[in-house]
């Protein structure tokens, strides 16, 4: 008899089946013990009702059904399926189909096993209990065993039908609510309504459990009691869980609320007829990134510090500053996460118990004191989502109930009336926790589905926390549904996706499509005007399209969704965010032209070569990071944006302006001022530090495509050299709108957890570097001038690569170009960025005879230094003072 390789998958239908199945009397103990231990992992992947995939197996095994369950388990199983305690689905060797390989490329090296057609009907019930895959030798010995990953087969059986059913709390025309939750693997689900248990009904086709209530349920507290097998617990449990589709919560997210967001009581005056700011295409967006607490928590002129309502205090210093930026050309305010956050207490938060202002500028005491209360204070960046579609309660004046909805809408309305769109920073790529943790919601309803699992069945955490799996249909749907809710119900003007590269491109395209379908007549908003951008980094288990086509920088080109471009950012600042020596210099921090004493910068020859290559990266950035733009690089070579190297990758990856978002700093890593503090020579005067700051920001402001700056960067904002201030409290993160309060520098050594390895560099700077009101106000005014200039010149808003190719050039590029100086010709403009400490002449023979003058915005602007710029018509020479960006216009 020919031996065949056969696999058996045990599918325990009994909800309470937890014991390791024993070996039979004639089975050696050791192999059985090894197999049982292997069940702690989940290496087998159930792809669909027809196929299971498993890493390559031994050649000589046969099938054996598992031993029956214990008596108590038989009784439970009999209630589910009379006459049956367990079922086994027989499998035979097969082959992954092209469609399966496309959907699950990371399983290409796995063996495929076909489910016997007679057993496929058992799949739905089998998925509601413990699952164990086993391989059996000819003598019955269990040679391999593992738990099973089930997301693929759940999508195959349920997702299409589930997509057609509304989830969460919905209301009919009479005001009666229906509550629905997708829980296809649950044994039972009931509604816990104000402590009363209400049964829910399961729809077999979709896996959705529903219950319809009375009008009196409105605004009452609820949760779901979900009885489900939890692999982490190793048993069936009953979890009391809030609604993943909740739109309102009680304080600290303890309970969901049956809330109708269309309730007129939740609409502030003028909400229904709110006039949105003038729409701008993504390529023209100028974005100010800000954290709700940073904006106002330390502003004594604000009546509602640290809250959504702070943005409605129009006479506060912060609100005045935002209006000045809007008048100059800023189009959007980007709010760091404002959904429900797991790590911020919504009431009774602690504050540091120290006299922080009395401590020395270079003391470690400030960070010690802040760290002592960090876990219980009111501050966190918020990249730890708990409920994706509820406003965070700590930013409301009262977190109890749906009032936070009204206050969030007040904030949006106020910013809109000031001419600013509102962008939400959204974090769908991970959850705060997984498994049976208190702050795990999704994984306690459908264990193992919403989180991305690694080969051994553990939850991936490459994003810092428990990764989600938007490649799975219902997690992808949650992303789309949540975004659409924010757009319709809160009139949000844009979304920034955290670690967007961990999303499939298809998921992001689906978001764009869903928003584009929103119309003012039907939905109250024009979805086509909503902007989308995100972090397109590629790393972790999804890197290089390992599991799906990622929403990364290269793949998103041409989709209408922008990605942050790190190319010019690194070139402007110097080095990278994780350099051991923070003194590595770049274009705007003095590399070669104003060297510091860091050995990491290399020899003079190496500095010059690296600076010129940095200038090539900035040129590509000024084009909008266009892959196909043709240019001459600093060696004299004709190439394209994609042909310029960025750490082994193409510098240019965009298809058209608007695909790449330019920036010199954001909330991550050191602020621009702090980075320059590390990199500029220690003795650099305060005025020169301010000028280098504005020049660095200009490389983003004057580029094709959208640009972003961190709030306060125009005011030389510092976080006292903290490179990761996500939990550093108000002390290190505060924005100071009154220049007499300083810029935040010298508030103590930054928190040890992320910065102690740099303290040797930081300590001497904190007592020697300083700026005052003159530099802060001059910097802010000069940045506004550049914003105004950009907003009034159509040449900064070109639509295609062909238009950029025709209008934009770098006429002095090549081996003879000046280190530290960039000259760009753009239609009838000439832009000179002089990052050197000396006045520079840039001669353009093709400009000879043309009348150029300093742009009127700068000529009548705030900066007296740029007004010393000059142009010699006879020789075509542009003269620009040190550390200055000057824009000349023909005419």
From TrEMBL:
One Pfam family linked to the record: Pullul_strch_C
Signal sequence bounds: 1-25
Gene3D superfamilies: Glycosidases, Golgi alpha-mannosidase II, Immunoglobulins, Rab geranylgeranyltransferase alpha-subunit, insert domain
Domain of life according to the entry: Bacteria
Keywords: Signal
Domain Pullulanase N2: 41-156
Keyword Signal: yes
InterPro entries: GH, Glyco_hydro_13_N, Glyco_hydro_b, Ig-like_fold, Ig_E-set, Pullul_strch, Pullul_strch_C, Pullulanase_N2
Residues of the Alpha-1,6-glucosidases pullulanase-type C-terminal domain: 741-888
Ranges where the Glycoside hydrolase family 13 N-terminal domain occurs: 167-246
NCBIfam families named in the record: pullul_strch
Protein family per UniProt: Belongs to the glycosyl hydrolase 13 family.
Name used for this protein in its record: Pullulanase-type alpha-1,6-glucosidase
Provenance organism: Streptomyces koyangensis
């Amino acid at each position: 008899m020919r031996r065949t390789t056969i696999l058996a998958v045990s599918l325990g239908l009994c909800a309470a089946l937890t014991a390791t199945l024993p070996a039979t009397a004639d089975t050696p103990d050791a192999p059985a013990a090894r197999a049982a231990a292997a069940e702690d992992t989940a290496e087998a992947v159930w792809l669909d009702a027809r196929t299971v995939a498993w890493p390559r197996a031994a050649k000589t095994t046969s099938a054996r059904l598992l031993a029956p369950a214990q008596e108590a388990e038989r009784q439970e199983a009999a209630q589910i399926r009379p006459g049956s305690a367990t079922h086994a689905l027989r499998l035979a060797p097969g082959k992954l189909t092209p469609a399966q390989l496309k959907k699950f490329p990371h399983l290409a090296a796995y063996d495929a096993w076909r489910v016997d057609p007679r057993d496929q009907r058992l799949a739905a019930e089998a998925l509601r209990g413990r699952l164990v895959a086993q391989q059996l030798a000819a003598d019955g010995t269990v040679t391999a065993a593992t738990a099973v990953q089930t997301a693929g087969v759940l999508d195959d059986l349920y997702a299409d039908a589930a997509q057609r059913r509304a989830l969460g709390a919905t209301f009919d025309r009479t005001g009666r609510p229906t509550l629905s939750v997708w829980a296809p693997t649950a044994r039972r689900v009931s509604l816990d309504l104000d402590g009363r248990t209400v049964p829910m009904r399961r729809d077999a086709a979709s896996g959705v459990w529903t219950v319809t209530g009375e009008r009196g349920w409105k605004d009452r507290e609820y949760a779901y009691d979900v009885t489900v097998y939890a692999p982490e617990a190793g048993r069936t449990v009953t979890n009391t869980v809030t609604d993943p589709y909740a739109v309102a919560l009680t304080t600290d997210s303890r309970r969901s609320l049956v809330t109708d967001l269309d309730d007129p009581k939740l609409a502030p005056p003028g909400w229904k007829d709110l006039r949105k700011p003038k729409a701008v295409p993504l390529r023209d967006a100028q974005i100010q990134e800000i954290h709700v607490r940073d904006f106002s928590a330390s502003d004594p002129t604000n009546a509602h510090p640290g809250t959504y309502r702070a943005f409605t205090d129009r006479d506060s210093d912060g609100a005045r500053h935002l209006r000045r930026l809007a008048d100059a050309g800023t189009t959007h305010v980007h709010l760091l996460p404002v959904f429900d956050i797991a790590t911020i207490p919504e009431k009774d938060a602690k504050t540091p118990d120290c006299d922080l202002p009395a401590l020395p500028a270079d003391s470690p005491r400030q960070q010690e004191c802040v760290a002592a209360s960090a876990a219980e204070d009111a501050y966190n960046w918020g990249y730890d989502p708990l409920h994706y579609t509820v406003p965070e309660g700590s930013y409301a004046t009262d977190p109890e109930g749906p009032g936070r909805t009204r206050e969030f809408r007040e904030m949006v309305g106020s910013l809109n009336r000031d001419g600013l769109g509102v962008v939400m920073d959204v974090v769908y790529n991970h959850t705060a926790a997984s498994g049976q943790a208190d702050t795990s919601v999704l994984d306690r309803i459908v264990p193992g589905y919403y989180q991305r699992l690694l080969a051994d069945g553990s939850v991936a955490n490459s994003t810092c926390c428990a990764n989600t799996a938007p490649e799975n249909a219902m997690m992808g749907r949650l992303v789309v549904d949540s975004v659409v809710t924010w757009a319709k119900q809160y009139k949000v003007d844009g979304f920034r996706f955290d670690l967007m590269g961990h999303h499939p491109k298809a998921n992001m395209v689906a978001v764009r499509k869903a928003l584009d379908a929103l119309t003012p007549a039907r939905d109250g908003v024009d979805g086509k005007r909503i902007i989308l951008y995100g972090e397109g980094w590629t790393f972790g288990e999804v890197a290089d399209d390992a599991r799906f086509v990622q929403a990364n920088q290269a793949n998103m080109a041409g989709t209408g969704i922008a990605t942050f471009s790190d190319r010019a950012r690194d070139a402007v600042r110097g080095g990278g965010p994780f350099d051991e020596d923070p003194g590595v210099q770049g274009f705007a921090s003095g590399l070669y032209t104003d060297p510091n004493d860091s050995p990491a910068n290399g020899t003079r020859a190496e500095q010059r070569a690296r600076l010129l290559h940095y200038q090539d990266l900035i040129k590509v950035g000024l084009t909008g990071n266009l892959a196909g733009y043709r240019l001459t690089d600093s060696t004299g070579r004709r190439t394209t944006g994609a042909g310029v190297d960025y750490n082994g990758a193409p510098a240019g990856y965009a298809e058209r302006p608007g695909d790449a978002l330019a920036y010199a700093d954001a909330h991550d890593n050191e602020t621009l001022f702090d980075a320059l503090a590390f990199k500029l020579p220690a003795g650099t005067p305060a005025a020169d530090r301010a000028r280098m700051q504005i020049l660095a920001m200009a490389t983003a402001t004057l580029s094709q495509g959208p640009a972003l700056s961190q709030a306060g960067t125009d005011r030389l904002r510092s976080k006292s050299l903290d490179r990761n201030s996500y939990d550093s409290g108000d002390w290190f993160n505060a924005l100071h709108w009154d220049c007499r309060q300083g810029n935040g520098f010298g508030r103590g050594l930054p928190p040890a957890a992320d910065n102690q390895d740099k303290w040797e560099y930081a300590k001497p700077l904190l007592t020697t570097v300083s700026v005052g009101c003159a530099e802060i106000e001059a910097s802010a005014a000069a940045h506004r001038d550049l914003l105004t200039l950009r907003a009034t010149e159509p040449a900064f808003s070109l639509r295609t690569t062909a238009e950029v190719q025709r209008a934009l050039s770098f006429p002095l590029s090549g081996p003879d170009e000046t280190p530290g100086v960039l000259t760009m010709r753009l239609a009838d403009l000439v832009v000179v960025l002089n990052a050197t400490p000396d006045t520079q002449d840039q001669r353009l023979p093709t400009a000879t005879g043309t009348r150029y003058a300093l742009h009127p915005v700068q000529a009548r602007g705030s900066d007296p230094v740029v007004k010393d710029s000059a142009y010699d018509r006879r020789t075509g020479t542009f003269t620009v003072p040190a550390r200055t960006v000057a824009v000349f216009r023909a005419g």
